[in-house]
Write a structure and sequence with these properties.
The chain is of the alpha/beta class and 212 residues long. The protein has one domain: Spore Coat Polysaccharide Biosynthesis Protein SpsA, Chain A (Alpha-Beta Complex). It contains eight helices and nine strands. Strand 4 (44-49), helix 2 and strand 5 (66-70) form a beta-alpha-beta unit. Helix 3 crosses helix 5 (141-153).
């Protein structure tokens, strides 16, 4: 297999107040929006959670086509831990890492990132101000696993710590991404109830479905 999708669902969702991946948008849990947007362009889908309780809850809404894995208990609660869990369990050569709260991901954008990642260790979107999007990026799975493991062993919690250990990183300008996703909804994530209401308005408009 060449492509995996790793969905991070183990965050504390402190600003939202409940498990965001299970919050319903248009009568569907957010995690399912993400999975359904990318499942046709990857060979395997993995959801990473933090606890047995989450595993039980997510198993009730996710089909058996996707695998759910629990982050190791001895590691901190952070995206880097979730990413490492995904890399550790993925069988594909390349893996895209995505948050569970980004329901409008463009398949075309993710497809492009997979293409850009060929023969390098990572393909990461980068804004004109040099801010990068490590949770909307494609990584060479084995290499990223080793880098994330080493970073966590050193007590690091940031994705940038892992990325700094990768030998070859290719950055994709968001200016290019905007040509595919004009409203940049790929990066729209739901952190608050207000964001959820905005997402509901987007769905009513349905203009984001241009790549379907």
């Amino acid at each position: 297999m060449d492509r995996a999708a790793i969905i991070l669902a183990g965050g504390g969702s402190r600003r939202f107040g409940s498990d965001k991946g299970l919050v319903k948008l248009a009568n569907k849990p957010l995690v399912l929006h993400v999975l359904e947007r990318i499942q046709d362009i990857v060979d395997e889908t993995i959801v990473c959670v933090r606890s047995e309780n989450q595993l039980s809850l997510y198993s009730q809404v996710i089909s058996n086509k996707s695998k759910i894995f629990i982050d190791p208990e001895n590691l901190p609660e952070c995206p880097l831990t979730g990413a490492m869990t995904g890399f550790m369990n993925a069988h594909s050569e390349y893996s895209v890492v995505l948050p569970c709260d980004t329901p409008f991901i463009s398949r075309e954008v993710i497809d492009l990132l997979f293409d850009v990642a060929i023969n390098v260790d990572a393909a990461i979107p980068r804004w004109p101000n040099d801010y990068i999007e490590p949770l909307h990026a494609v990584y060479r799975t084995r290499t990223a696993f080793e880098a994330s493991r080493k970073a966590l062993e050193r007590g690091e919690k940031r994705m940038l710590s892992m990325i700094s250990m990768l030998k070859s990183v290719r950055y994709l300008s968001t200016i290019v991404i905007q040509e595919i996703d004009p409203k940049m909804l790929t990066f729209f994530n739901i952190n608050t109830p207000l964001d959820l209401r905005k997402a509901e308005a987007i769905i009513r408009n349905r203009s984001f479905l241009s790549d379907e």
